[in-house]
Amino acid sequence: MSTACAADAQTVPVVSFYVGPLLLGLEITQVREINRQLELTPVPHAPREVRGVVNLRGEVVTVLDVHQVLGFPSPQITPQSRNLIVFHQGEVVGLLVDRVWDIVNVPQDQISPPPANLHGAQGRFFRGVYPTGEELLVLLDLEETLRCEQANS
């Protein structure tokens, strides 16, 4: 892990996490909290992307299975699984991920557009890539990820 130092004006702090084989990231300003609450209540007739709902300190939060959004099979929930709690358009939403990796300060001038081969159906969920030195960090487009769920509800 490469623990990040304080960000400056040319860097973007990113919460990085795994979904299947992918190392993904969201800008830290998009993440309200990282939560271990994984006792999900299934929602009958919900879109396949909706893994369930969780009671988060009295607030009912819809939890999306990012695996399903990206076209991967749903994982088993493990002790490393987490919900990334995000606030989007007035709604709190949980994103189920396999595990959180690190906070990485990404230099803005080193974010590249996604490779051409990622522009298919799943490619629309990615807004850029950054080589961490160890692997490729793919920046997730939160707007597009949540649009997928909204289109199905």
Structure report:
- Helices cover 10% and strands 44% of the residues.
- It is mainly beta and 153 residues long.
Which tags fit this structure?
five-stranded mixed beta sheet; single chain; disordered N terminus; 10 strands; mainly beta; OB fold (Dihydrolipoamide Acetyltransferase, E2P); 153 residues
How are the strands ordered across the major sheet? 8-1-2-10-9
**Helix count from the secondary structure assignment:** 2
Percent of residues in helices comes to 10-25%
Q: List the uncertain runs.
A: 1-5
Order of helices and strands: EEEEEHEEEEEH
Shape: globular
Class based on secondary structure composition and strand pairing: mainly beta
Gap between N and C termini, in Å?
38 Å
The profile of the biggest β sheet is: 5 strands, mixed
Mean pLDDT: 85
What is the name of the CATH superfamily? CheA-289, Domain 4
**CATH class placement:** Mainly Beta
CATH architecture: Beta Barrel
Q: Evaluate the radius of gyration.
A: 15 Å
Which range does the strand content fall in? 35-45%
Could you say how many structural domains there are in total? 1
CATH topology: OB fold (Dihydrolipoamide Acetyltransferase, E2P)
Topology, number of strands: 10
Secondary structure elements and their pairing?
Elements: E1 11-19, E2 22-27, E3 31-35, E4 50-56, E5 59-65, H1 66-70, E6 82-88, E7 91-97, E8 99-107, E9 126-131, E10 136-140, H2 142-152
Parallel strand pairs: 2-10, 5-7
Antiparallel strand pairs: 1-2, 1-8, 3-6, 4-5, 6-7, 9-10
TL;DR of this structure?
By secondary structure, the protein is mainly beta.
